[in-house]
Amino acid sequence: MAKRKRLLVPEAVDAVNHLKVQVMAKEGYQVNQASPENVKYEVAKDINVPLKKGNNGSLTSYEAGKVGGKIGGSMVREMIKMAQQNLNK
Question: Looking at the 3D structure of the chain, how many domains does it have?
Fold first, then answer.
């Protein structure tokens, strides 16, 4: 059974999606602001992971982690930069 990841603060969804768009655009990916979650398919294609829409039961956890890590890691690095800049102010 698939789990759905949800943000702890549901009101933050728009802000997180906006951050994803900004960060992945900086990384050189084409991100549709209307559906930023689709950037995972472009990232997967770039790193040769056979991710497709629908059931990805044949995907290994390593492959899935490569895709999620690329996106999430970039977002975390950007959030750390933002926090450091705010502390310096």
Answer: 1
